[in-house]
Structure formats: structure tokens, C-alpha cells
Design goal:
mainly alpha, Methane Monooxygenase Hydroxylase, Chain G, domain 1, 0% strand, elongated, small ribosomal subunit rRNA binding, ribonucleoprotein, Ribosomal_bS20_sf
Length: 98
Amino acid sequence: MANNKSAKKRIEIAERNRLRNRTYKSSMRTLMKRCFAACDAYSATPGDEAKASVQTSMRAAFSKIDKAVKVGVLHRNNGANQKSRLSAAVRKVLEPAS
């Protein structure tokens, strides 16, 4: 355990940051799963409503990823990689293979 005041403060700050990081990552993963689920739903039954759902969920996931990068929860390359995964999945569903 910490013996001096600054070390105790660092422990408190690290715990606070850990909880913040955990909530950001959890909500980001949830939004990504919703986007992938919306893509699956659209591929099963294409329609305007399903397409709007895919685009809305992708927009929400992108926003959360960008905020996580801005706050420092994710590295910018990791954020770009996650956004690329989402974009590829959405593109695969919305644009039929030619």
C-alpha cells in the first residue's frame, strides 16, 4: 500500500480513470454490437427502415469511438481500426457485391 500522500492520490486517480475507461469501452462495444446486429437484420430483411437503423447505429458507434479516442481511453490507431471494421461490415451489407 502507498505510504505517502502523492502515492495515495495516484492510486485514487488510477481507480477513477479505470472506471471511466471501463464505461467508455463497454458502451463502445455495445454500440458496435448493435451496429453488427443491425447489419445482420438488414441482410436478412432489406428495407428502408432497416437501412436507416444500420446508418443510425453506425453513426452512434463512430461518435462513441471518437469520444473515447479524444478522452484518451483508446489509442487513435485502435479507434481507426474499430471504425474501419464497422465501415467494412456496413459497406458489405449496403453495397451489393458486383
